[in-house]
């Protein structure tokens, strides 16, 4: 791995009742070019159009694809992801969102914070994720 992942863990051990399988850690030590991503929503990066689905899984796939695309456009890869903050509008969507997000961060172990909010910028959005990545020197 490009960065030092401090105290890596998997959510299946920390939240066994939630049937999650996300590789996370308590801290990341990184050096290099920092990439700060705006909160990514379930919309097309080129057209800013929201995806048609109101399903939290479909929305999370789009959000994570946007994150991957932006990190790659900056010259990095998902292995350079250091921190994510997940905003959801309904706590009942947490497991679906985190399971889907886990498909994109398997083996990466970023730091993660989750927040439940009353609303996002558009009423049809159920999830927004912001991220920080660091491309090593």
Main-sheet strand order equals: 3-6-4-5
Strand content: 25-35%
- How many domains in all? 1
Q: What series of H and E elements makes up the topology?
A: EHEEHEHEE
Indicate the CATH class. Answer: Alpha Beta
- CATH architectural category: 2-Layer Sandwich
Cα separation of the termini: 13 Å
Walk me through the structure.
The chain has a four-stranded mixed sheet with strand order 3-6-4-5. The chain is globular and about 40 Å long. The mean pLDDT is 93. The chain has one domain: 2-Layer Sandwich (60s Ribosomal Protein L30, Chain: A). It contains three helices and six strands, in the order βαββαβαββ. The longest helix has 18 residues. It is an alpha+beta fold and 137 residues long. Strand 4, helix 3 and strand 5 form a beta-alpha-beta unit.
Quick overview of this protein structure:
The chain has three helices and six strands, in the order E-H-E-E-H-E-H-E-E.
